[in-house]
């Protein structure tokens, strides 16, 4: 019989801990290497987090993000992308899907090849194609001259350019080929997301029946909810098969609209996202978003030409803090929307999204005002709680 060996484990003790089962006061999380371990193991180095009102939550999971830290996921180099990833990690997002914007197919293919390498290295969780298969009527911050119908052969080509890393494609499913492309994506195991769409209620319902499962930034870049023409919003909110993305930055959605969406869909069908562009975690100034120029002023990004909102400068720690302190959403529901639900959508809930034994040691330490004071990813501190460890 092999000799018994012991492993040094680290315990974070004394903080409020948000678990799937609820909030535990004076809780404990045990970290063994890169994973969360059961708490009852011996030979543990304990770090006391008591006395400051700290809260431990799972690392945030962002399924819709175009960049940050002054760097772009949409057209940047590998180092640019890693700069953006590091910026969001420092704000608690331990899992990031890189989102593109509308470009030529050749440019998208080249960027997908670069991003897929970073997925293979474990720096990114996947690729989200936002465009070019979107409606010119609801294009937002996308170059109209590069938009195209979602022909299934072209959709397949872009998915294949990601070399297995493509996780989601946003489509205006009312366009020619839209329904067929939804079915294709479902068959390929890629999320079909309805967004930047001018579809009506019935068209949206048909796309959901075909296999669409996500609403790209609900309310934004789609027809408004009207009493005789409910449009896509009603169809997306009422169908239990749909998870709705919400940008909780105080700019994209009025607080009452956020409350309406959260209350209608329920906590298990909401995914908080950033839709961040380069300025997230960086500052005001002039930026590029794909081929378009963007000015960021007082934290709001708008196209220089036309003035459309061009993504956000949001980081998920701000979305978390707004949800709990301003929107009246409970800690458990906020964690579900910002960690557990997006992890489930990515098919990664066996590894991330909650603080449970066997999962990656991805966690965020928040102070009494829900500001980030510590971030751990796979057992290593990205941001160490100052003066406490």
TrEMBL record:
This is N-acetylglucosamine-6-phosphate deacetylase. The lineage of its organism: Bacteria, Bacillati, Actinomycetota, Actinomycetes, Kitasatosporales. Zn(2+) binds at residues 130, 196, 217. Keywords: Carbohydrate metabolism, Hydrolase, Metal-binding. It is an enzyme of class 3 (hydrolase). The active site is at 275 (proton donor/acceptor). One of its GO terms (molecular function) is N-acetylglucosamine-6-phosphate deacetylase activity. SUPFAM superfamilies: Composite domain of metallo-dependent hydrolases (SSF51338), Metallo-dependent hydrolases (SSF51556). Residues 55-382 form the Amidohydrolase-related domain. Binds 1 divalent metal cation per subunit. Its EC number is 3.5.1.25. Transmembrane segments: none annotated. CDD domains: NagA. The keyword Hydrolase applies. Its cofactor is a divalent metal cation. GO terms for biological process: N-acetylglucosamine catabolic process. PANTHER family: N-ACETYLGLUCOSAMINE-6-PHOSPHATE DEACETYLASE. Belongs to the metallo-dependent hydrolases superfamily. NagA family. Coiled coil: none annotated. It comes from the Bacteria.
